[in-house]
Amino acid sequence: MKITNCAVKAAGCAIALTICTSMNAQKEYPKPTPMTPEMSEYWTPQPRVVTPGDMATQSAPSDAVILFNGKDLSAWESVNGSDAKWNVENGAFVVTRGTGDIQTKEKFESFQLHMEWSAPEEIKGESQGRGNSGVFLQGMYEIQILDCYDNETYVNGQTGSVYKQTPPLVNAMRKPGEWNTYDIIYTAPVFKEDGTYLYPPRVTVIQNGIVLQNNTTILGTTEYIGFPKVIPHGAGPIKLQDHGDAVKFRNIWLRKL
Ligand code: MG
Q1: What pLDDT is attached to residue 9?
Q2: Contact, 228 vs 222, CB < 8 A?
C-alpha cells in the first residue's frame, strides 16, 4: 500500500511540475538593457597633466619638489636642527664624516622619490664598512645604501634592503664611483588609536631600473640592534645617514602621492 501511495504522489508532482514550467515559460520578466561601450566609460575628472622630465638631462617632472638642485643644501638641515654641514661639490653633495645625519626641512606622507648616489671610488673596508649610508623614509624606516659591488654582507643589510628586515630581490649595483639611481614609491602607514598599524607602511624600491623591493610591507623601525618597533608618527622628513663614508648624492626630487 505504501509503495502505491508514493507512486500516486510522484505522478501528481510530475503533473504539477509540468503545469508550473509551462506557466513560467509564458511569463515575461524585465530584461537588462543591452550594454554599449559608453556605459562603462567615464570622462571626469581628467588626470592632472604632469610634464615629464627631460631624459637627456635627467630633470625632474613638473610637479616635483626639488630636494637638491646641484647648488646648495637649502632644503636640508642637520637632525639637531642646525644647518646641514655636508659638502656640496660639482653638482653633488657628499657625506662629511662625523657631522651627523641630515634631513629635509619639509615633511612628507606618501611619495615617489628619485635620487642618485655613488659609493666612494676608492674601495675601503668590507661588509657594512664600505660605502655605507641610507635613506630613511619619513625619518623612520631605512632603505640601505651600501657599496655591495663585489662586497658581501648580511643579506637583510644589503643595498636596497629594508634594513634588518627584507633583503633586496637582486643585487643591481654599479661599480664604486659610478652613479646609481633609486626610485622609491612609499605608502605611509595609518595607525589605530592604540598606536599599532591599521595599514603598515609599504615600499617599492627600484635601483638602476631594477626592482629590489616590490610593494614590501615595512614591519616597523629599522633597528641596528633588536626587532622592529611600531611607533605612531605623522608626516616625516627624508633623512640621509652619516655612516662615516663619503657617499655622494645628486638629483633628488620627490612627488607627493
Ligand atoms: Mg646604512
Answers
A1: 53
A2: yes
DSSP string across 29-91: ---PPPP-GGGG----SPPPP-PPPPTTTTPPPTTPEEEE-SS--TTEEETTSSB--PEEETT
**What distance in angstroms lies between residue 129's CA and the mean position of ligand 1's atoms?**
10
Contact 246, 95 (CB under 8 A): yes
Segments of the chain scoring below 50 in pLDDT = 1-4, 6-8, 10-11, 13-20
- With 0.90 as the threshold, say if the pTM is over it: no
Centre of ligand 1 from the C-alpha of residue 243, in Å = 6
Distance (Å) from CA 132 to ligand 1 centroid? 5
Look up residue 118 and give its three cell numbers: 655613488
CA of 51 to the centre of ligand 1 (A): 34
pLDDT value of residue 3: 47
pLDDT at 23: 53
| Phi, psi dihedral angles at 22 (to 5 degrees) | -70, -30
> 240 C-alpha vs ligand 1 centroid, how far in Å?
9
Which residues, including other chains, have CB under 8 Å from residue 202's CB and lie 6 or more apart?
A: 186, 187, 215, 216, 217, 218
Tell how far the Cα of 145 is from the centroid of ligand 1, in angstroms: 6
- pLDDT tens for each residue of 69-104: 999 999 999 999 999 999 999 999 999 999 999 999
Q: Which residues surround ligand 1, an ion (CB under 5 A)?
A: 132, 134, 241
